[in-house]
Amino acid sequence: MRIIGGEFKGYRFNPPANKWPTRPTTDISKEGLYNILSNRIDFEDIKFLDLFGGTGSHCYECISRGCKDATYVDKFQGCVTFATVMREKLNIKDYLRIYKMNVFTFIKRCEEQYDYIFAGPPYPLKNIPEIPDLILAKNMLTQNGFLVLEHNPNVNLSNHPNLVSQRNYGQTIFSFFEPT
After folding, report:
1. pLDDT, mean over the chain
2. Cβ neighbour number for residue 91 with a 10 Å cutoff
3. What is the pTM of this model?
4. How does DSSP assign 3-48, residue by residue?
5. Tens digit of pLDDT for each residue in 22-74?
6. Band of pLDDT at residue 102, cut at 50, 70 and 90
7. From 3.30.360.10, 3.90.800.10, 1.10.12.10, 3.40.50.150, which CATH number describes the 46-177 domain?
């Protein structure tokens, strides 16, 4: 895995392979996503939330591009440990908060708003279609904020009233949601 753009562009990192509980976003699909995002947002001015953070790849990418306020949430200790080690290696502890917590518990307790939320849940998770509604109901997005939900073709969100676009990268789909 690598960081695609910004200060840490080209930095490679490898999460432990033994019993790793995540499916990291591929470099190709992540590069496509960040090409879209770089035309949509100014990373230096956003507050970012990474749900189902896994390796922390999206946090490192946003911070590398100038984000100074990123939050990472994952319930697996191995992932949290890896993200904590990476935060130290990249010297970004002032910009990255890490929570070891179930994402749905975090959403229920959340009282903050974010400009950009990325959610990359495990593809077998049954309640993926509920994630946009939970985030929107909690008013977690700023007025101009948006959610990007990563999922596979088995999840159909095309009729969601807050869906504004989708990008397909093979078995990876990024669905973009905005508040009304």
Report:
1. 94
2. 8
3. 0.96
4. --SSTTTT-B-----TT----PPPHHHHHHHHHHHHTT--GGG-EE
5. 667 777 899 999 999 999 999 999 999 999 999 999 999 999 999 999 999 99
6. very high
7. 3.40.50.150
